Amino acid sequence: MSVKYTPVQWNPNKWVYDAVLLAIVAIYISVFLRLGAAEADVSRPIDGAVLRMRAFGTCAFFMLSAILCIGPLARLDDRFLPILYNRRHFGVLTAIVAWTHATYVYNWYFNFSQINRLEALLSSNTAFGQILGFPIEALGVFAFVILLILAATSHDFWLSFLGAPLWKRLHLLIYLAYGALVAHVALGYLQDTENPTFALLFSAAALGVVGLHVAAWQVGRMRSAKGEWVAVCAPGDIAEGRARIVQLGPKERVAIFRYDGNRFSAISNACAHQNGPLGEGRILDGCVTCPWHGFQYRMADGCAPAPFTEKVPTYDLRLEDGQLMVQRHANPPGTAVDPLAVTGMEATP
Amino acid sequence: MAADLIWAVQIYLGLGAVAALGFLGIGLDRIDENARGAWVFRPFLIPGILLIWPLVLFRWWQLERADTEDTEGQGRFRPPLLWQPRLALLLAVAVPVMILGAMVLRQDGPNEAPAQLIEPAQ
Questions:
Q1: What is the DSSP string of A148-210?
Q2: A57, A230, A275, A310: which one has the fewest Cβ atoms less than 10 Å from its Cβ?
Q3: Residue A252 and residue A177 share a domain
Q4: Looking at the 3D structure of chain A, how many domains does it have?
Q5: Would A218 be classed as within a structural domain?
Q6: A251 domain residue, yes or no
Q7: Interchain proximity B87–A186, CB inside 8 Å
Q8: What is the ipTM of this complex?
Q9: Cis preceding linkage at A235, omega within 30
Q10: Hey, of B12, B59, B77, B99, which one would you mutate to test binding to chain A, going by the most A CBs within 10 A of its CB?
Q11: A184-212: per-residue pLDDT in tens?
Q12: Chain B contact for A23, CB < 8 A?
């Protein structure tokens, strides 16, 4: 199966997603510019450039917080899955907003420096040995470089070229960037403002991110499989033509599909193309269809229909005490497994 | 020190530009069939190559050596989810400490009372 690369893969849903994102950013910046001056320390009035850099800086922070909330929210509740699919555009927009913030800082605080502006930015504060007055510029630069790397490697090509494990590891750097950003704001803007509004919003966003991650981790642990055969759910709990995704371990997820009314098959949740979530796809023309790029697989053997050659691992299923059970260990990709037909459920032609 | 760092970054990005030229002009078509004949998207890859060109060259060499076969085997179906909760839990400890620390150790807070240069009047 082949999908030629395009500069940006848009569809009507992504247009709406991106338009909503842009509108929210525009509203936030407008509101901040209108109200932000009043929120600052009134004893030291700030000028327009500082206000604008704070507007874009805080916007980038809240955007990154929102991005980091999407993953755990989707793991906790399926209804958040639609906002997961276009998260990469969200990330690129965040990097652009952060770039704007950095440009304001660079062109304002270091504009009249006698040395190179970049050199001035890096050398104006080198008090790395103290907490108060710590060079927050270094923290900001560190987080910004990571945001740039992640935005620059967000195209589909990079996932395919680097391979899912390496790409995923690279993109885990987002957690280091977020930690650096929290420190950047906590030791920077938070020290300057006297009004509690920003402090409350900042704390709520950062604690919300870590709270959701801890909650999703705890739920994932409870759902994690133990033993050779893993209980999934009652057969009737899976809607016709849809799947139930089960985490078999820290690295593995399986999708159990129901089709033809009473038949069940289990395949890897990771598409062979770019690790798209097969369990969130639908059954079209008798095949599981990946929601990311439309790659298809037969449920009985995990093979793409001819002439395509992609394969995903399959899993054995059985019924025990009215519960679907899935074998903990996957079969090699493309292994045929007879579908489990559950008696007592109505078969559809 | 800062000037040396900037110089090193400029050298790094310069080498990245050379790597981008070679990879986009020669390597891409050899290791990815989906890229053959697709030219419009290639400029979008330049920033990424500039930033992580050593990784790009390593992966190019790896894919050439494997004759563009799948080099990940079964592992490709198992994304590295192990580190995600570890990093998230590390963040769960670090973020409250940083926020609380910043609230307590404010520059104008109780721990940084301004020095009194003049004795207060009796």
A1: HHHHHT-SHHHHHHH-HHHHHHHHTHHHHHHHHHHHHHHTTHHHH---HHHHHHHHHHHHHHH
A2: A310
A3: no
A4: 2
A5: yes
A6: yes
A7: no
A8: 0.84
A9: no
A10: B77
A11: 999 988 887 667 888 899 999 999 999 99
A12: no
